[in-house]
Design brief:
Elements: H1 10-34, H2 39-63, H3 71-92
Amino acid sequence: MTPNWKDTPASMWAWLGQRLSALFALGLITYHYFDPVNQRAQNILLAFVLFHAVLGLRVILLDLGLDTKKHKSALVVLVLFGIVLATAGALWNR
């Protein structure tokens, strides 16, 4: 039986997202080093770093014993929090 990607738990997508955001952030940091005045690159870097940090906070909550029934809702709340912070940072950077 071939597993369906839609049946993959949210925690696996969060883990994969955190790893990919780290790779993209490293690439953007390198780009930012050579072109420090590019505001679009700064905003994208901020978004990736915040996304990575928010998923890191989720892992910390899980390590502290967050109930398994609340994993998906914690992920949604933290990602929404990250979106709000990224939007505020992008508006601040204008």
